[in-house]
Amino acid sequence: MARGLRKHLGARVVEQASYFKEMPMIQPNVRASFGRREAEILVALAGPEGERRLREGGMDALMDDPHLVRALLARGGISAAPAPLVFYLLVRHALLQREIADRQLADYTAAVLLEFGRAGRAYRVDGSDAGPFFALADILMELERARGEQEFALRVHLGNYALWLAGVFPDHITHRVQRRGAPPISYYDEIGAAGFRSAASTDVALRHGLGDLLLQAAEQFSNLRSALNGLSDALFFPRARDTTERLLREVKDGFERKYR
Which pTM was predicted? Predict the structure, then answer.
């Protein structure tokens, strides 16, 4: 199952690249791309009552059903279902497990995974030829001389990139901390949240209608990252290099969610 999902993360995301081809920046509109094909898949997963549930509650009612996600994983539907649907479902339910019910935030997070899954895309700023940026520090340095739309794009990318690195590759970060004394995951939480928060307060964010979403992403950053860690540990990279470090990370995140 994990091998199939990793393959899907590569090949199927490349196949779906046209979905983002003309987008100047990442937007929370993965759900808006769903049509008849996605509805048919959901109805099939839901069983005999699927059509009735679709008529009465719409696609969201089906997509919010955890049984459908388990059915998708159990039946090997990952390799056949459209990449946007797969990633939206995975992210949506990972966030629901952490009591984050905002569909737009799940939509945006899924869009980041889909877009950054394209080769080299994670190192490039939305709608810009700037970069590539391989470290958060490089983006911070570029921000010192950026203004206007470019500054906004860099701040959003800072949040997106921090979420991508710390959310999908937490074991790699832990390994770098142990071997080289690199910054821990808490650094990515802090920098990523700051990127989203500073972007949310700009006039550019208001013009694009992204202010509230980016502010929510800033406030929930550590929970978003932790939710992606759960997906990464269970599905993307299930063979842990250090199971103890994973357990400590999960305990720490759970403690902070409970007492924050």
Answer: 0.85
Distance CA 20, CA 23 (A): 5
- Percentage of the chain lying above the pLDDT 70 cut: 83
> Does 184 sit behind a cis peptide bond, omega within 30 degrees of 0 on the bond before it?
no
Same domain assignment for residues 49 and 128: no
DSSP 72-140: HHHTTGGGTS-HHHHHHHHHHHHHHTTT---HHHHHHHHHHHHHHTSTTGGGS-TT-------SHHHHH
The predicted structure's pLDDT at residue 6: 52
The Cα 175–Cα 242 span in angstroms is: 9
Number of domains in the chain: 2
Q: Which residue has the tokens 């964010």?
A: 205
User: Cα–Cα distance between 18 and 14 in angstroms, integer?
Assistant: 8
Token pair for 208: 């694009």
pLDDT (tens digit, 9 = 90+) per residue, 56-108? 999 999 999 999 999 988 876 677 799 999 999 999 999 999 999 999 999 99
pLDDT digits (tens, 9 = 90+) for 189-238: 999 999 999 999 999 999 999 999 999 999 999 999 999 999 999 888 88
Evaluate whether 8 touches 102 at the Cβ level (below 8 Å).
no
What whole-number distance in Å separates Cα of residue 200 and Cα of residue 207?
11
Chain-centroid distance of CA 143 in Å reads 23
Sequence-ordered list of residues with C-beta below 8 angstroms from that of 88, at least 6 positions apart, any chain: 30, 31, 63, 106, 107, 110
Query: Where a domain ends, among 85, 119, 153?
Result: 119
